[in-house]
Amino acid sequence: MLLVVAFVLPSSLSLRGKSAVRGIVAPAERGTSGFGQRLSEATSAIRGMGGAVEKSRELSHELVRIQAELNKLSDVENENLRLRRALEFRQQQPRPMIPCDVVSRNISGWWSSVRIGKGRVDGIRKNHAVISPDGLVGKTIEVSKRTAEVLLLCDPACRVSARIEGANIFGLVRGGGVNFQGHPVARMDFIDKDTKVQAGDEVVTSGLSGEGGVSPKGVHIGYIVKVHLDDSGLFQYAEIAPSATVSLLDYVFVVSETTEEVAP
Amino acid sequence: MMKRAIMLGGIFIGGLVQLFLPSWSAFGGAKPPVLAAFVLYYALRLSWRDMWIAVFWAALLHDGLDLGPFGPALLAFPILGILAYRIRSEIFVDGTVTHMIFGALGAMMATFAALLIYAVSGQRPFHLGYALLRLVGSGLLGMVTLPLVSLTMNMLEAVLPKRRGYGWQ
After folding, report:
1. What whole-number distance in Å separates Cα of residue A237 and Cα of residue A187?
2. Is A87 touching B (CB cutoff 8 A)?
3. Looking at this predicted complex, what is its ipTM?
4. What is the DSSP string of chain B?
5. Do B31 and A108 touch (CB under 8 A)?
6. Cβ proximity of A95 and A207 under 8 Å
7. Which residues pair with A192 in a beta bridge?
């Protein structure tokens, strides 16, 4: 009975239910994500101390402490560099961007998606492009009040209109999942068979977007690895290595449709 | 009441753990089925009513936090719960081997239910090789996850203060 009710739920009601569940879990997710970050910093500090302890037969305890401190500072410096890069990237973009932190992964592993810690109240809407300094990450797919699901570029359900940089060659990039090494893969379909495309060509977004979404033009997607002729013989398709990969402790930017700058 | 609160809290934390654990690309992207393990753990121990509370809460968390419509966990978890509840008197409930077998079968059943729903609705591409890899992978992960969940919950329940019984109560 419950199942039947769940299956016939209209999508708006289903999304409302999901939004409620995500609202309950969101504070714990943020807390755990923050804890994970601190744990990661502490682990690298301890690792540094461990390395120093190996040398401690010749070195004093003071040196251990300094090394740990140095290690911590190095982490801070790395974080600083990462944030500075993100800030520069954001300032270079002509469109307003909403900076978001990644708070969790997909629960089932069926989808290549991550959850970001900002939602409808922060101005995020469905089908907005999500980018990082490395390139296109994916697009927002389900937006609740305070969180949003980002469908990553490597997910088979993610489709983005693209073109080859420096040429008038267009196609559709769709995700191909993750290979056995854990690297994301994607492919560009519907490339005109009479055009010359080769490995190493850069693929960028074309700026065309459907479903009322926001997709900026010229955002780097990745590089072509291999080109094939499709089964029909009418088009070529190309395997792509997407450049932007997202981990749990990363920042991403959601392209905003508003012209106002959104505070970080 | 306390036990029920621990159950709900445990399932909530289990959901968070499953969220943060990475998926295994060598196992077709399967994740350790922590929530399914909680459902099995409680179905093997609790009353019919509490089992349903556990099933509903775990399924709600799972499908609520996942993409797509409600469904895969709402289909799989009640079946897991009912089956485990029905045959628990025939088996050695606290045995590690029992947990390993139940964990593997439970995870495979949950994966199969999700595969069925995604294949029928066309939300995910269906490849036989990938589906088999995912089924086997989730089974292996379930085989490890349920004994770990059982061990953790047994330890947790052992350290928590128990209500004093006076015999006449």
Report:
1. 7
2. no
3. 0.81
4. -HHHHHHHHHHHHHHHHHHHSPPBGGGTTB---HHHHHHHHHHTTS-HHHHHHHHHHHHHHHHHHSSSSS-HHHHHHHHHHHHHHHHGGGS-TT-HHHHHHHHHHHHHHHHHHHHHHHHHHTSS---HHHHHHHHHHHHHHHHHHHHHHHHHHHHHHHHSPPPPP-S--
5. yes
6. no
7. A235
* Chain A residues lying within 8 Å of B31, measured CB to CB: 107-109
Q: Contact at 8 Å (CB) between A108 and B111?
A: no
Which tokens in the block code for residue B135? 């089924």
- Cα-based torsion angle of the residue sequence A126, A31, B73, A111 in order, rounded to the nearest 10 degrees: 50
Please provide the size of chain A in residues.
264
Task: Identify the residue among B25, B57, B130 best suited for mutation to test binding to A, counting A beta carbons within 10 A and taking the highest.
Answer: B25
Cβ contacts of B126 on chain A, cutoff 8 Å: none
Q: Tell me how many domains chain A contains.
A: 3
Does residue B96 belong to any structural domain of this protein? yes
Give the CA angle between residues B59, B65, B71 to the nearest 5°: 45
- Domain containing A9 equals 2-92
Q: Decide if A6 and B68 are in contact by the 8 Å CB cutoff.
A: no
- Digit-coded pLDDT (tens) for A203-225: 998 887 665 566 788 888 999 99
Between A6-20, A70-84, A147-161, B47-61, the lowest mean confidence (pLDDT) is in A6-20
| Interface touch A104/B75, C-beta < 8 Å | no
A260: in domain: no
pLDDT in tens, B13-67: 999 999 889 888 888 889 999 999 999 999 998 889 999 999 999 999 999 888 8
| Total residues found in chain B within this entry | 169
* Residue A188 one-letter amino acid: M
CATH code of the domain covering residue A114: 2.40.10.340
- A143/B23 Cα distance (integer angstroms): 23
Is B124 in CB contact (< 8 Å) with chain A? yes
- The two tokens of residue A126 are 């469905």
Q: Does B25 touch chain A (CB under 8 A)?
A: yes
B23: contact with A, CB 8 A cutoff: yes
* Residue B18: CATH number of its domain: 1.10.1760
Q: Is residue B166 part of a domain?
A: no
